[in-house]
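EI: anyone free to look at a 320-residue chain?
SC: sure, send it
EI:
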Amino acid sequence: MQVKAADPAPAEPRTRPQRRVHPPRPTPPRWRPRTLKGLAYAAPTAVFVAVFFLLPLLLVGQMSLSDWPLLAGDRGVNAPENYTDATDSTLFWPAIRFTLLYTVIVTVVLLGLALGLALLVQEARPAAGFFRTVYFLPGALGLASASLLFWGLYSPTTGPLSRILEKLGLVNDPVSFLGTPTAALLSTVFLIVWKFAGFYMLILLVGLQRIPHEVYEAARMDGASRGQIFRRITLPLLRPSLALTLLLCVTGSLLAFDQFFILTKGGPDNSTVTVVQLIYREAFQRLDLGTAAALSIIVLAVLLLLNALQFRGLRRADES
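SC: here you go
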């Protein structure tokens, strides 16, 4: 019997190696009408910042490195003579200490009072709107105008405050509200608190009104006291508004000029000279723009450092 041979296994079809598919090359972005419209909206602000901030900043930097009298112009580079002259001045370190002391006092008193006023008028009570308006009214007055107003009120000869105290029998002689370093400092702090308490109250009031009422109701149902609600709910949720007021208050206090220039002229005995007043003296009394520019650069660096530290501290508080 003949055995039939088995059929050979069919050969596997040869597979061609697959070509590597490359991703399509990104096409360069095209200027869309929406992008052009956004650039058109941003262009005026960019031009404003460049003309009124960046260019003056570069000019101040050049002045700080040059011998630049006010009436003679640029006489060439003299770096770092302007910075050494600024720090070697007899008024430099006293002005630094006084400015920092004034900033601490104003910040603590002003923010504490503004927070208290905001808590007082946050509820819809009778006459709450009236008191909000009354507290905010001093903020509508310019700082120079307010300083002139208080200069008249503080005058020991023509001012009404000294006469009122004498008629009440509290003092026997006219009171010199600006006659001593401590009195001049406290009188100026009172002016600033009167002027800006309503403004900061408004910022904190907006922050308070953004806190949901349900959070307070849940805390009261859990038996939380008013102090616990304030510490555990109000202050943490009010942190963005507090950060804004702190930033504005510290920056404005470090740049204080108008109130001391009008009220005290830096006196008595140069005890109320701020850093900005020192810049003014170097530029317009000693006619030395180079040293004044060096002081301005130092103040700018300190402000940037303090603002960076504040933002870093607030960021850590939010993350914790």
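EI: The mean pLDDT is 85.
SC: 👍
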